[in-house]
Amino acid sequence: MGAKPVVKWAGGKRQLVYKLIEYMPKEFKHYYEPFVGGGALLFELLPKKATINDVNDDLICIYRSLANEEYYHLMLNELDKHEFNHSEEYYYKVRMMDREPNYKSLPIWVRAARTIYLNKSCFNVLYRVNSKGYFNVPFGKKEKINTYDKDNMEIIHYYFKTNDVTILNGDFAKAVENAKAGDFVYFDPPYDPLENKNSFTSYSKDNFTRDDQERLANLFMELSKKGVYVMLSNHNTSLIKELYKDYNIHIVHAKRVINSDSNGRGDVEEVIVTNY
Ligand SMILES: C[S@@+](CC[C@H](N)C(=O)[O-])C[C@H]1O[C@@H](n2cnc3c(N)ncnc32)[C@H](O)[C@@H]1O
Asked: Does 15 sit in the ligand 1 pocket, CB within 6 Å?
């Protein structure tokens, strides 16, 4: 039985998940998701052998807490505390925590619960940091909040505990170093900005540059040579079409729900690229 993401993530793949399943290989050995984000596909598939990664350490604290018996219960206690104390003033107090010098040395379940709480109670349910790396989304004005679905959390906790899942927190290239023939890698990077000025700034927001898109395309090619099944999603832009012209490009339509710029909402063309 599949599970749902525990956070809503910009670029979350919840609505595309069945398309992704349609295009993924029917059989594979080890599953890799180097840009895991909210992990929509991971939690739908719950693969027995997996390596997941994200450069965002607040997010990785959540998965590491979910994977550890003690941390898991401590994280749920923290979430209950956040729900009980929830108010606008409390939200801003919790939001401030990452401005404190000791933030990175706080227990990971504390950081995990903070990230989930902010994700559920902030405006537009998204994760965004400023240039200093501080979370800066305003209060979402909800009076009461529910930070987790216990049954869903239990499924994910059980999944991490009973399967061979490696959780990494670094760059995407390092995460697939051990991928071998017959393994499957799903790349869902920060998207190449659409060719209109509204979304152009997203380069700097995610700090994922054109060079990174090219570095990723080279890695896609190297993995292909090794016999690894690779699938990638991105916007249907001229850069992406050029970078992946030697592979199968499937066009799909998606509704963007999370976008800090409301003009960026609506139907957009995305691609699912496969090397098989
Ligand atoms: C489009 S999102 C992934 C969404 C995810 N598939 C989901 O369903 O929620 C891209 C993710 O890549 C991460 N990221 C950005 N640069 C990265 C890098 N160089 N290496 C690894 N992860 C990176 C971001 O933190 C973000 O979580």
From this structure: no
In-domain check, residue 203: yes
pTM listed for this prediction: 0.93
Residue 195: pLDDT above 80? no
Phi and psi, residue 274, nearest 5°: -130, 155
Report for 7-21, 206-220, 247-261: range of highest mean pLDDT: 206-220
pLDDT in tens, 115-163: 999 999 999 867 888 888 888 889 998 889 999 999 999 999 999 999 9
What's residue 197's pLDDT? 47
Query: Which structure tokens are listed for 13?
Result: 């793949």
Smallest CA separation from ligand 1 atom 17, residue? 55
Task: For residue 121, give both structure tokens.
Answer: 């109670």
Q: Which mutation among 13, 32, 53, 54 tests ligand 1's pocket best, with the greatest number of atoms within 8 A of CB?
A: 54
Q: Calculate how far, in angstroms, residue 150's C-alpha sits from the geometric centre of ligand 1.
A: 25
Domain span at 100: 63-151
Query: What is the number of domains present in the chain?
Result: 2
Tell me how far apart the terminal alpha carbons of the chain are, to the nearest angstrom: 27
Residue 230's DSSP bridge partners are 185
| C-alpha of residue 187 to centroid of ligand 1, in Å | 9
Task: Please give the helix or strand (H or E) that residue 17 lies within, else none.
Answer: helix 17-23
Distance 129 CA to ligand 1 centre (A): 14
Q: What is the CATH number of the domain that holds 234?
A: 3.40.50.150
What backbone phi and psi angles, to 5 degrees, belong to 105? -100, 5
Residue 157 in domain: no
39 and 91 part of one domain: no
Measure the CA–CA gap between 193 and 236, rounded to whole angstroms: 9
**By mean pLDDT, which of 23-27, 159-163, 179-183, 205-209 is the weakest?**
205-209
